[in-house]
Here is the input.
Amino acid sequence: MVKRFGEKMWVLGIESSCDETGVALVEMQIHPDSAPLPVLKGHALHSQIAMHQAYGGVVPELASRDHIRRVLPLARQVLELAACSLDDVDVVAYTRGPGLAGALLVGAGVACALAAALDKPVLGVHHLEGHLLSPFLSDSPPSFPFIALLVSGGHTQLMRVDGVGRYKLLGESIDDAAGEAFDKSAKLMGLAYPGGPLLAKMAAHGNPRAYDLPRPLLHSDNLDFSFAGLKTAVLVQSQKILASWGVAAFEALPESVQCDLAASTQAAIVDVLVKKSLKALSNENLNRLVVAGGVGANAALRSQLNAECAKRGFQVHYPEVHLCTDNGAMIAMAAAMRLQSGQQKANREYAFDVKPRWPLDAL
Ligand code: KG4
Ligand code: ZN
Here is the structure.
């Protein structure tokens, strides 16, 4: 890197691990003492949700093709927003994994081609590290150390975070992720993909105590989660409800009944997430919690965590709601924070690879 300590650098970040194409620019400094946090200068996002909805879930091949179509126009949009040109970019970062192999290859390929053409270094970023560090883009960034609750469509993990790149896995889901539990339950209720946000909307109008659904591993000694049984319990419960109302389809039930089941399902997931997060804080003797990933946008999870943490004098930090789900800003931010912390150097090796499976604590 040609820039000196204290000089401003621009990091372009590209996210393409699943069904969102995201591009962002952050400005950062490398300083021998303590550099200020990187600042987001612009980001642009295209969600493929509408395209995948017809199939009830993400179709990997369609996802890859759409990333190809979107990524360069989004990059142009971001450069315009930040009023700069490609020549101003100092480092090109991309999501290296985990995620869909074909989708990752699009972001990696474009990032490496851009960097090679500009003769600038590249840096591959861990998608979950992006989520984990995304609260540093908020108005109330956390400080280290903290417990991170990572709740996305593919992962549910509790980590102890002592600094950038210093992650210890404390517990994780042994089967479905929390986002999957939301989405699969929502599908049973006839909601479109991804059902999590729609289920949450209905839940806001329902009674969370209407139906007694299981809270798996709630009282286990460890910090692991298990959500696979919940969808079966939701299925059994909804069959009972349909029989009692004498109707065949969930949509034919009164709206209040649908909302009650949604609220009870959400409560079962949120209860477990909240209890295990508090347990992790107490086990590690820490008083700061960071929540990240798509399910971190859930209002019930936020209000329950806020209330429980306030009672105990703990701080809880979230990304901005629009940066909870996948985006390029978190990838540019994670790259910038890795460079600042000296955890990683960007390089000019443009022969990229991607890591569809990649544990975060292996970083
Ligand atoms: O982090 P993310 O965008 O993608 C992955 O990396 O997996 O998370 C997507 C997940 C989906 O399962 C989606 O249903 C869930 O986050 N989600 C929500 C909400 N918003 C997104 N789940 C519950 N309530 C929400 N408000
Ligand atoms: Zn994600």
